[in-house]
Amino acid sequence: MSVIDVHRPHSLDKEHARQAAESLAQDLSRQFDVHYQWEGDQLKFKRSGVKGHLHISPSELHIHLELGMMLRPFKSRIEQEIHSQLDQIIQA
Questions:
Q1: Which of 16, 53, 74, 87 yields a CA-CA distance of 20 to 30 A from 22?
Q2: Backbone region of residue 8 per phi and psi (left: phi > 0; alpha: psi in -120 to 50; beta: other values)
Q3: How does pLDDT run across 6-43, given as a tens digit for each residue?
Q4: How far is residue 89's CA from residue 55's CA, in Å, rounded to a whole number?
Q5: CA angle in degrees (0–180, nearest 5) for 18-3-10
């Protein structure tokens, strides 16, 4: 199991932080066929070979993904995409 664990500070209010997380989830869903659903302030991701969550706190977004063997070769691409998306949506 390969893990991606990203902590990103933010200064967004709760509504904008949730919109940023939703935007990231939609992009990951399109690019990597990941299914997601909200459970309170936590967004859960799942598909064959990957599971994880994105948690919103007042000052931080925390993304934790566990990749199975088949997706391990894409770890750096997935992680790079997460950072890129976060850069865009948190700065917006």
A1: 74
A2: beta
A3: 999 988 888 888 888 888 888 878 887 889 999 988 99
A4: 16
A5: 30
pTM: 0.83
- Interacting residues of 84 by C-beta distance below 8 A, sequence separation 6+: none
Q: Distance (Å, rounded) from C-alpha 43 to C-alpha 55?
A: 6
Q: Three-state DSSP class for 5?
A: strand
Residue whose tokens read 């995409």: 81
| The residue type at 71 | L
Residues, the chain: 92
Cα dist. 21→57, 72, 73 in Å?
Answer: 11, 23, 25
